[in-house]
Amino acid sequence: MKGNGKDRFDEYLGVVGKDGFSSGCFYFEVQVKEQTKWDLGVTRESAKRGGIVLSPDDGYWIVRKRDGEYRARDSSDYSLSLSVNPQRVGVFVDYEKGLVCFNDVESKSHIYSYTDQCFNEKLYPFVCLGYWRNGNSTPLIICDDY
C-alpha cells in the first residue's frame, strides 16, 4: 500500500499499488479465484479515498464483481455478460491512448475497455475486496508470474 493514513480508504476495503505510471503502457494480473466480491483496475494519484463512487469521474477505472454479477461504470453503470467466471484478470493500460482494458487471462477473452480517456497524472494499480466488509477470507493476489 502506498502512503500513510491520509491515503487510507474510508468505506472501501481497497489498496493502491506503490508504483505509479505517467506514460507508456503497463500491465498487471490479479488472481480473483474464489473471491465473491472485488473491484480492480487503476486509480489516479489524486483520487479521493472517501465519499466516492468507483468511476472515472472520481478517478477510478475498474471492473467489479458483486453477488455473482460483473459490472463496470463509465458514464453509466454497465452489466457485463461473461461466459465464464474469471479466475485471473489482466489489466492493460496505454497511458497515451487513454485505454484501460480488462481481460480474462485463462479464457483469453475481453471483459471491458475504457477508451478515449484523458490521463494527466500518475495511475496506480487498485484492488479492493468490496464496500465496508467482506466475509470471504480469500485474498486478491497481484501476480508477478505472467
From TrEMBL:
Top-rank taxon, per record: Eukaryota
InterPro entries assigned: B30.2/SPRY (IPR001870), B30.2/SPRY_sf (IPR043136), Butyrophylin_SPRY (IPR003879), ConA-like_dom_sf (IPR013320), SPRY_dom (IPR003877), TRIM/RBCC (IPR050143)
Pfam families in UniProt: SPRY (PF00622)
Residue ranges of domain B30.2/SPRY in the record: 1-146
CDD domains per UniProt: SPRY_PRY_C-I_1 (cd13733)
Protein name: Butyrophilin subfamily 1 member A1-like isoform X1
Native organism: Labeo rohita
